[in-house]
Amino acid sequence: MLGFLSARQTGLDDPLRLRRAESTRRVLSFELNSDREVDRIHGNGINTLDIEVIDGRYMLSGGADGVIVIYDLENSSRKTQYTCKALCTVGRSSRYVHRFSVETVQWYPRDTGMFVSSSFDKTMKVWDTETLKPAEVFQFQGNVYCHHMSPIARKHSLIAVGTEDPKVQLCDLKSGGRSHILQGHRGEILSVRWSPRHEHILATASADSRVRLWDVRKASGSLFTLDQHNGEKSKASSEAVNTAHNGRVNGLRFAPDGLHLLSTGTDDRMRLWNSATGANTLVNYGKVENDSRKGLQVAVSQGCSTEFAFVPCGSSVAVYALHTGERVTTLRGHYNNVNCCVFHPDYQELYSGGKDCNILAWVPSPRCPDIEDEERGAAAQEGAGQPAASRAFEDAWSSDEG
Predict the structure, then answer these.
(1) Judging by DSSP bridges, how do beta strands 158-163 and 144-149 pair with one another?
(2) How far is residue 155's CA from residue 172's CA, in Å, rounded to a whole number?
(3) CA–CA distance from 3 to each of 73, 271, 370, 372 (Å)?
(4) pLDDT tens digits, 337-362
(5) Angstrom distance (rounded) from CA 249 to CA 363
(6) In angstroms, rounded to a whole number, what is the distance separating the alpha carbons of residues 383 and 173?
(7) What are the tens digits of pLDDT across the range 261-272?
(8) pTM (whole model) above 0.85
(9) Could you please report the per-residue DSSP string of 139-196?
(10) Which long-range contacts does 3-12 make (Cβ < 8 Å, 24+ apart)?
(11) Counting beta carbons within 10 angstroms of the beta carbon of residue 111, is it exposed (0 to 12), middle (13 to 18) or buried (19 or more)?
């Protein structure tokens, strides 16, 4: 640590290097926080979580019971042990509550005064946070599996929606109507994701084993379909050409810089793609347990020297090095399957939700003194010929002469 600080002070290192190194150390030391609890409100499994990026303080959760909860993550008590309180709830007693399971919740990227939820009751609702009433309700023909708003868009206000219908729906927040549809998939849409790099680029994943990338300004179809074999025909006849996985593709996540796209499938595989060319980077993550028939919410770290992927695997969360495929660690604490996780980039923390109705907080372990720090401290003591602690009480102003 002292080496990083010295190099930053003298201008030898970019200031970001220290920040990234410390962020990486914090992520690699994740442990279950026994001093922090999250109010248990949901009566059934938790399907989705989202933390707003304006203040990094409020978290949304949506459950299989149709309930939506807003939590305050800030420790206002200033005590070591505290509970993240539920500020408000759209519960079963509300006339506006979703009738069936909530599959996705998301804060409006530029304002905490609004959030969006989608559900198996075939609706997507745009909520006013202040009144907890829907300002707009979009109706669909089938169950809604997912939706996503672009985190960077300035030229459009589209929400991409995945339903039982193979067509991807684009809903416009400004007009309150449906802008247009994207046709190409042959199965239900399980995951949609806007690029954090280009505001008109959208990735979609389906039960037809395919992942497509679209430029929503073009009406000529998708830009390309991701192929796990990179154009080389598989020798195994059972493996179809131009498929991203050999099963349902139920999870998508862009890297923070938008240069790569991560996909998960029920073939127990996870793949990393070059989002510009559509090439499979062939990173080997090994077997990644995944038997979910719905969407799976994975998370990717932000601000580290090398980024990490947090993937629900059964009753645990597996942590992978994004670009090497190494399984760094496994976070265990849930009593049932984990459905979702969300990374907090401001504090390098992770929150996970599962079928056990719990939301768990994973935080960095306390920092141990560096060997470099200890060596310098020991050297200082030897040079002074006395314990370093006593020097703090020396009178530096008095003369040595009587």
Answers:
(1) antiparallel
(2) 12
(3) 33, 37, 10, 8
(4) 999 999 999 999 999 999 999 999 99
(5) 30
(6) 69
(7) 999 999 999 999
(8) yes
(9) E-SS-EEEEEE-SS-SS--EEEEEESSSSEEEEETTTSSEEEEE---SS-EEEEEE-S
(10) 3/372
(11) exposed
